[in-house]
Amino acid sequence: MKNLITIASFVLCAVAASAQTENTAIRKGNQLYKKGKISEAAGEYSKAVQQNPNNPVAQFNLGNAQFRKNEFADAEKDFEASAASNPSDTRLQQKALYNKGVSLSKQKKLVESIDAYKKALRIDPADEDTRVNLQKALEELRKQTQKQPQDQPQQQQKDNKQKPEPKTNKKRLEQQLKSLQQKEQEIQEKMQKNRGKAGSQPEKDW
Question: Do 142 and 63 belong to one domain?
Answer without folding.
Answer: yes
